[in-house]
Amino acid sequence: QSALTQPASVSGSPGQSITISCTGASTDVGGYDFVSWYRLDPGKAPILVIYDVSQRPSGISQRFSGSKSGNTASLTISGLQPDDEADYFCSSFATGSFLVFGGGTKLTVL
Amino acid sequence: EVLLVQSGVEVKKPGESLTISCQGSGYRFSTYWIGWVRQMPGKDLEYLGLIFPADSDTRYSASFQGQVTMSADKAINTAYLQWNSLKASDSAMYFCARLAGPGKNYFDFWGQGSLVTVSS
User: Tens of pLDDT along A38-47?
Assistant: First the structure.
C-alpha cells in the first residue's frame, strides 16, 4: 500500500492533455509544497519532471505542469506525444518519513 | 554532466550478503546527499534513506533501519547499499539518486538502477 495514491493508468491521444492525480494527507501532500514528479522508463534512470509542486527543471518541456489542491497534487501533460509514454510517480516530503512515493501511473499514448 | 552509475544485475541466494554501488561524476560528490529508493516488482517506489558522503552521516527510513546499511567512500565518489543476509523479499530494483541540495526534498539526478534477485 503506497503512501500516496495514484491511478494505475491513464491514456490519451497525441495532442490531447492528460492529468495524473496524487492523493495524500495533511502530513504530506497537503501540508507542504514539496511534491515532485518523476518519469520512469524500463532500464533507464528516472527523470525529475516537476519539483516543489509546479517547478520545472531545466530541459523539461513546458508541456509538463504541476499543481496542488488540498491533499491532492496533479501532473498535467499537454500536447501529448508518443514519447511521453512511461510510468510517472509522485513524491512528497512527509512528516516523520522525509519522503513518500505514490504507486505510479502508467501513461499510454493511444 | 551529472551522472550516477550503478553496479549491475545481482542474483543471490537467501542468507547471502550483497553490496551494490553508485558512483557519481560531474559534480562535487561529497557535498550532496545520496538517497536510495527501492522499486518492488509491480511498480511501487519506497524511500530507504540518505547518506552524506562528506562525513557518512546517514538517515534511514524507519521501515529500513536495521535492514540495510548505507555507506560511502568520498575518495572514489561512490555510495554503497549493503545487506548482511538477503531475503527473497529484498528482490527489487534499487536506485540511487542525488538530493537536489540543502533543504531540498527531491532527487534531481538518478542512477540507472541495480536489479537484485534473491532466490534459492
Answer: 999 988 999 9
